[in-house]
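Aim 2 progress update. The chain analyzed this quarter is reproduced below.
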Amino acid sequence: LHHKVLKLNGPYLTRCMTSLHPVPEYEHVWPSLEKEALVVAVVGVGNVSQLCLDLLISSLKTSFVGYLESPCIPAVVGAAPYTTDPSKPFLTGSLELYHIPDRKTFLLQTRAPNFAGTRKKFAVELQNFVMQNKFSKVVLLSSSFAMARKDAQLLGLPVQFALTGLPDSVEQLLRSLGLAEIPKEEGPSGDTSGPRLNIPGSGCAEALFSSLSTGGAPTALLNFFTSEGDNRGDAVYMANFLDSWLHLLTPQAVSAGMNPSKWKTPDCWALLYGADPDPTLY
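Predicted structure tokens:
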């Protein structure tokens, strides 16, 4: 693991589990991470959380902070994800950190799933990163297989939540938006870890939530039940729910649901599903 000390507005920020690399082309003072919210995209079915953060990063007044590096995440390098915005990174990385200053919120965009067998290790890394930098709360965005829903879950919205360490008012607000809590189930025979969230296909989401809960970090998990396919509509749906809670785009609460007009289509969606077919074929 890398250890790096970076100067942020006077105090020094120590990275004990991940190293944060500033981009030399962008001369800006790194903001303090203390007492701000952290929204994390967790790789899952349909990449709904990553698409959702694409919408937030493209539509909000975000500034690129830097890259996070973890031995649990494969190294990924690609073309600029938001090519028309000079304030965004010139390369795609595995873990990209963005800041919304006027909303006191950081966004952690994840471009690759963790290596097999490293879920718990990465969960501990994120927990340490959150606790060392004193984030006010963490919001995990994930997606899981719609086919795994129970009968009772089929009657509700495709987004459900799990909370730990947050005030009752947060649960009341989420329920007022029509969301239900993710049910917990007993593990397979011989599993002594106790009840767990039933969200298969959500990658390390359950491990992250459990680790942050153990560490005492106020955490919310928003999970979208979906299937592989064109998941852009799912991303808009989740972004609207997140905005209704955190008011990232609008200062007033807005009705959740399909309302794509307020979101800017990200540059990286241009060829999300390849080029259009040649019309002469038809």
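The longest helix spans residues 119-133. The chain has six helices and 15 strands. These observations will guide the mutagenesis experiments scheduled for the next reporting period.
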